[in-house]
Batch of 4 targets.
Target 1
Amino acid sequence: MVAPVPEAPEIERHRAAITRTNLSKPVRLAIESSILNQSTTFFDYGCGHGGDIKRLAKQGYSCSGWDPYYRPDNSLTSADIINLGYIINVIEKPDERREALLKAWELTQKVLIVSALVLIEEARSGQIAYGDGIVTRRKTFQKYYQQEELKAYIDQVLGVDAIPVALGIYFVFRDAAAAENFRASRFRSNASTPRIRLTLKRFEDYQEMLAPLMAFYTERGRLPTPTELPNITELLEELGSLRRAFRLILKATNQAEWDAITDKRRQELLVYLALTKFGHRPRFSHFDSSLQNDIRAFFGTYKQACAAADLMLLSVGDSQLIASCCRQSDMGKLLPNGLYVHVSAIEVLNPLLRLYEGCASRTIGRLDGATLVKFHINQPKISYLFYPDFDTDPHPALHTSMQIDLRDLQVTYRDYDTSSNPPVLHRKETFVTPDYPLYEKFSKLTRQEENWGLLEDTKTIGTRQGWHKRLVEYCAELQGHRLRWRKDADPYRVKLLQSARNRRSREG
C-alpha cells in the first residue's frame, strides 16, 4: 500500500515581516558605507510594514517600496539602491525565491543589497522541516543559510561577485569600478592630519587654501592630480605647483607624520590587492581614476603592485611568520593559543595580520556584532567573539563565537548564551588601543584587581563561576568598574587580605 503524500503545511509569508523601531541593519550599513545618501534613490523590494522607507523619508531620502501583501498596489520601480532585505529566506518555493532575486537585480541601477538569515544555532522545537528550510509555529517559512552558501547562491543566480559586508548581508554592484573602489575603501583606516608645529607667516597666509590639499593627502597618502582637487587653479596661481604647495605644508608640520600616512595607505592598498587574488583580480581599467592614481603613485605600475601584493599573500601562508607577528604585536592580548584584539584595533595591527584577518572577513564576513578577533597561532584559523556587554560589564561573558578555517573557509558557530558557566574576560584594556574611550576606566579596574590579588592563577578564573568563586574567596564584589569589600565579609578575613594587599603594594 502506497503511503499517502503529506499535505503541504499552510504558510503565511506576510507574518514574517518584522515591525522595527529603527532602520534595519542592511540599510544602516548602506548609509554608513555612503552607498545610500541624499543624492541616490532607494527602493525596498518586499518592504513589509514599510519601516525603512518611512524612516528614510523623514530623513529626506528619495525612497519607495513594494510588498506583495502590505503594499501590493505600489509599482515596482527602478532605483539606484534596491534593498532585498530578508526576503529570500522566507520564500518556500526555490523558483519564486530565484525570481525575486532576479527581479530585484533587474531594478537595480547601482547597488543591490541582499540579506538573509544565517544559521547560527540549531532549529528549535516546534518547527517543521519543509523543503530546504523549516515552517515555524507562526506558519512562516525560514531557510537558514550558511554564510558561504548565501554568497554562492547570489553569485550563481546573478552571475556576480557579491561583497560580504556583515553576516548575512551582501552588496552587489552594477559597476565594476565602483565595486573595487568600495572594496579598497574598506581597508582604508582613519588617519589624523598632522598638526601644525611651526608658526610661519607664508603658511598662515595660504592656510585656508592649503587645507583641502592636506585633507586629500591624509585620505590618499599622496599628492592629487590636477583633476582631483577642487581649488587647484587658485592654488597653482598662488604657489606655482602642488609640490611647491606641499613643501610649504612640510615646513609647518612634521614630515615623518606625512611619511607614515603614505606608508599606511600603501600597506592598506597592498592588503586589498592581495585579497583580490582569492577571486577574479580586476583589470586595471576596472578601477576608478583615484584608485588608478594610488597604484601609480605607490608602485609605478599595476603589474608591480600585484607582484608586491602576491609576495605579501605568500607570507600569510607561512604559519610560523603569522605566529611570530602575533607574538611580537604591540596590540592585543597574547595567550598561548592566540592573539585577541578588539575589532576597533584591527587597523593598527601589522599589515600581515590585517591581511590574515581580511582573508576571513572579506570572503565570509564577520560575526554580527563581533567584539574581539582571535588570531589562532597554532592553526590557520580566525575566530570572531561576541561580548554584548563589553563596555558596560567589568567582566563580560561570551555570547557567541564564529570560527573560520582559512584552509577550506568552513565556518563553525558556538552559542554560549544559555550556558550557566560561559567564558569571561579580564584585563579589558589589553584588547583595545589607548585612545579607546573607556581605556583608562578598564586599566584602573585591572590595577585594582591586581593589587587585591584577584588576577593570580588565571586558569581558575576564566569562566563566570570560577571568577565569582574568586571574588567570594577574596571578600570582594564589583560595583560597576570598581572593587569594594563585601558587606557580609568576615572582618578577620578582610584584615588578612588587606595585609597581603599592602605587602604586594610595597613589593610592587
Target 2
Amino acid sequence: MRTNKILRMKLCNWMFVIAACFLLCGITACGSSGNQPEDTSKQEDFAIADLAGTPSDYAKEENWLKISEITHEVDTFYLYPTCYSDESEDAKPICDIDNEEMQAGAREIYEKQGTVYEESTNVFAPFYRQSNIFQVAGLSHEELEDYQRGEQRTDVYAALDYYFENYNDGRPFILAGHSQGSIMTKIVLGEYMQAHPEYYERMVAAYPIGFSITRDWLEEHPYLKFAQGADDTGVIVSWNTEGKGNKGQNNLVVEPNAISINPINWKLDDTYAGFEENLGSRILDEEKGTYEIVKGIADAQVDTERGVVICTAENVEYAPAVLFGPESLHAYDYDFYYENLRENVKTRVEAFLKTR
C-alpha cells in the first residue's frame, strides 16, 4: 500500500544534481553470457586514441574510494557522479585527484549508490579527476562527451588498467555509474571494452544509470546489447526517472532515441509496475542520520516514446526545472529503486555464474 507521508529526502549534496545537468546532456537482441562481439576483426583492429595528460597513480591506495576484500565471485567497478563544483575565478576546469570537496562528495554518494552492489559483488571504486560544472556549462552534448575524454578518461582508463592487472584476478565483473560516472561508463563501453575483448567477455552487465543510452549509439557499437529482461547477461541496463510533467520538456540527461528499462518489472514496454511491486526505496532518515528501506515510495512505467521511466511519487524534491524540466527525478534514479536494483544485480550475477 502506498505511503502518504511526506518524504524528507535531502540530497547528500544538491550540487550533485546541478553538476549532473551541466555535464550530461533499435533495441537489439539480448547479449549472451559469453559477450563475444559480432565482428571480432573490428575489435582486434580498434585502438584507443591518445590519452590526455599523465594518469593518476592507482598503485596508491589513497587514489581509491573503495577497495573491497574478496568475498564474492564477481566484482563491480563503480564510477560516482559529479562531486566537484568550484565557481571561484581561479578554479581548475578539471579537479586534482586529491581534491577534498570531490573526495568527500564521492564518499557520501557511495553510501547512496555504490552500496547496492555490495551484497553480490566486491566493489572497486577509483577516485578520478572530474570536470568543474561551472567550466563546462555552455558546452553542447557533443562537446561535453569530447570534454570527458580529457584527463577524466585518462584516469578512468588508468584505474581500469590497474584494476584488471592487480585486483580482478580473472573474475567476472559489473560496470556501474550514475550521471557523470555514467558518461564515463558509456565511454568505457564504447572504447575501452572494444579495445579489450578479453575483459569484455567477462562482463556480467553494465549499469550506466541516469544517462541516456540511445538506439543510434547501439547501432554504432553492434557488439553492445541493451537488456531485454531481468536475467540476461553481457547487457546494458539503464534508465532515467521523470514525473509525468516532464513530457515534452527538455531534460539534459534524456537524449532522442533513448532507451530505459523498468527498474521494477524489468520490461522495456509500457507495462505498469505499481507501488506494491517495489521492493523498497532507500531513504535518509534525517533525525537518525541513517538510511532506511521504505516501501510504497515509487512506481514505474516506461514512456517508450521518450525513453524514460515515469514515476508518480508525491512530495519529492525535483531537480532544477530550468535544467532538467519541471519534474525530473534524476537524483532518485538509485534511491527509488534501490532494493529492486540490488535484487537484479544478484539475479544477473547468478545467471552469469551458471553459464561458467
Target 3
Amino acid sequence: MKLTLGFSPCPNDTFIFDALIHGKIDTEGLEFEVTFDDVETLNQKAMQGKLDITKLSFHAFAYVTDKYALLNAGSALGFGVGPLLICKQENVAMIDQQLLSENCKLKVGIPGKFTTANFLLGIAYPQLTEKKEMVFSEIEQALLDNKIDLGLIIHENRFTYQAKGLHKVMDLGTYWEQHTGCAIPLGGIVINRRLSPEIQQKVDRLIKKSVAYAFANPRSGIDFIRKHAQEMDESVMYQHIDLYVNHYSADLGLEGRKAIDTLFELAQQKGIIPQLANSLYV
C-alpha cells in the first residue's frame, strides 16, 4: 500500500523521516510517496485534503480536524523553540515606540496566515494587522531590503538573524511559556481520517520507530538532511534538530496533549479559530 506523505525540507523533519522513507526500518508493507513543501504550502494542501499524511502547523490543524487526526509521533513541541519577532538593528527605537500605539502601521512579514507563529503573534501583538505572507526563508532578506518593518521568523533562521545585523523584538515562545507553563506546540503530523484505524495506528507506530532510529543513529541521515537544508552549515543543522526534535517527537504523552489542548482552548476563547467538533487525536 502506497501513501502520500508531505513534510518540510527543514532538518527536524528530514531527521525524523529519514529512516521511514529510506528503508532503514521495517515499514510493514507500506510505501511512501514523499513531497517536500514549506509549512504554509503544507497547510494549504491539508485544507484541500490532498495528502494521506502531512506535517502542518497546529493553527492550521484547527481548520481540518474533520479531515485529519493527529498522530502521537512526529510533532514539534518544546520549550525555548518559539518564533521570534525581529527587526533591523537601527530601527529598534522606532519599532519599540510604534508597538505601543493601538493604531500601529508597522508592516510585518509572516511565514503564513495559518502558522502557529502567526497565531502567537496575534495574541501578543493584536495591533499588528499589516501583515505580508512570505516564504519563511525570505523574511530576513525582506527586512534587510526594507520591504517590511518586522519579521516573524521560524526554523533555522533563529540561528542566523543576528549575524545579518537583525535584532530580536520578542521571543513569542517565551511569551507563551510564561502565560501557560506549557511547551509550545509548533507543528504536528496528521493522517487522513478516511484511512482505516489499523493503517492510522500502523503509520503512528512506524513514525515512532523512525524517530527512535534517528535518535540512536543521529548521523545516519546527514546526507539527506544536508541536501534539503536551507542552512548548509552542519552545526546549524544539528542545532535546529536538537531544538525541535525531542521526547514529544517520539510520543506526545500527557504533557504534549495538554499543551495542544491548551493552545486550542485559548484560541477558541479568543475567537481565533472555530469551535472544534471532532476529537483531535488518532
Target 4
Amino acid sequence: MILVLRTEVTSEQTAALEKELQARGLITQDIIGEHTRMLGLVGDVTMLDPETLGRNDLIERIIKVSEPYKLSSRKFHPTDTIIDVNGTKIGGKDFAVMAGPCSVESEEQILTVAREVKLSGATFLRGGVFKPRSSPYSFQGLGLEGLEFMKIAREKTGLPIVTEIMSQDMLEVFQRDVDVIQVGARNMQNFPLLRDLGKLGKPVLLKRGASCTLEEMLQAADYILIGGKSEVILCERGIRTFETATRNTLDLSAVPVLKQKSHLPVIVDPSHGTGHWELVEPMALAAAASGADGLMIEVHNQPQKALSDGQQSVTPALFHQIMGKVNQIQALVRGNGEK
C-alpha cells in the first residue's frame, strides 16, 4: 500500500504519521518524487481501514500494490538505486565489473589476477573462498585463509572485494572483512540467511536461483531489504532449462524486465550463465547492450590448471579484449561517451 500525501504536509507531520504506522507493526518507506511525497507501507495492511485512512487530512489518496514484493518494487522507489561501495558505484551511469577467479587458490594467484583485471578496468575483485560444489569431493575453497588472501589483494590494488557467504556463522566475519557479500544461486531462498544479511549494513549481491522466477527473486530481495540496513544488487546468472549445449540458459530478457519492475541495480554473470569461456565475450557484450548495470566475469591466469570452473574462465588477455568492447557498448547505452 502507498499513501500519497498532500503537498502541504510538513516533514514533522510525516514523521508523526510514520511513527503511528510503525507502532502498528508496519514498515514505512519514505518516497519523495519530483512533485509528490508518498509513504510505502509493508506488512499486514489488512489491519488498516482504507475509509478511515482516506479521511486523514494528511493523505490525498491510497494506492494498493498488488505485487508480492514491495521494497524492491519500482512503485515503492521510482528512481534507480545507486550503491556506493567505498566510492565505487553500482547503478546509474556507472558500469560495475566484478572480475576474478572462481576460487582463490593462493596469495600469488589472486594478486596476479587482481592486478591484471584492474589494469583492464575491473572495478571489483571477485573470488570464492567458500565454494558450494555439487560434489562433496570437489575443491571446497580455502575458507578463511582464502579471505585473508583477498584482503591482501584489496590492500595492494584498491579493488573492493566480492565473495560468497555460505552460512550464518560467517556473518560477523563477512561484515567486518567483505565489501560486497554474495549470495549464490543455491542460497537465494535461504530466508533466515537473507534476513540476517539485511541487518548488516553491507551491499548484498543476490544471484538468481537456477529454477527461480524473477518474481521469486524480487521477493528474496525483499527478505534482505526488510532488515532496513543493507542494499541489494540483482544478478542474472542463467537458469536451468531443457537445453544442454550450455551450463545454464542465460536469460538476458531478465535485465529489462527487472529494470522495469525494480529500482535495484542488475548485473549479469556470463561465466556461470554459459559455462564456456568462448561464450563469455558475446554474452558479456549482449548483457551490456541489454542495459545491465555491470558484469561478473571469471578470470584466471591459468584456466587449464584452475581448481574449479576453469572451462568457463577467461584469461587476463581475453578479459582485456572483452572490456574494450564492453566499454564501447555501455557508453552508447548509458550515454557516457562518444556515439
